[in-house]
Design a protein that fits this description.
Blueprint: H1 3-28, H2 36-57, H3 63-69, H4 73-111
Length: 112
């Protein structure tokens, strides 16, 4: 495995979380930009969802199996697009849940 492959794997695993964190900040109407912790939390959930799906559909059970599958370029492209799509869906759902609870808390404080 050379440096370019390692960099590509790193981007495939980290970028969907970054996109999700930005969309979460936009949907939740956060005043500050999302932190690296938010990005890593989204990355963790995206990876868990993707590895579960790959276990059931492709029989991939561990990280070395996933890295071996990444050598196929069509698999890499599908994995990246699907993980971005899953990340966007997670960010939208999380953002709406955050706004719902934040508004309920804000209304309680305003009426008190």
């Amino acid at each position: 495995m050379n440096f370019i492959d390692l960099f590509r794997f790193f981007l495939i695993l980290i970028v969907p979380g970054m996109i999700s964190a930005v969309i979460f900040g936009f949907i939740a109407r956060l005043r500050q930009e999302p932190t690296i912790a938010t990005t890593l939390i989204f990355d963790f959930w995206i990876f868990i969802i993707m590895i579960t799906g790959l276990y059931f559909f492709k029989g991939i059970v561990n990280m070395p199996g996933l890295i071996a599958s990444f050598e196929c370029l069509s698999f890499t492209r599908r994995y990246a697009l699907l993980s971005v799509f899953i990340g966007i869906n997670l960010a939208i759902m999380s953002g709406f849940i955050y706004r719902l609870f934040f508004r309920c808390r804000w209304r309680r404080r305003k009426t008190s």
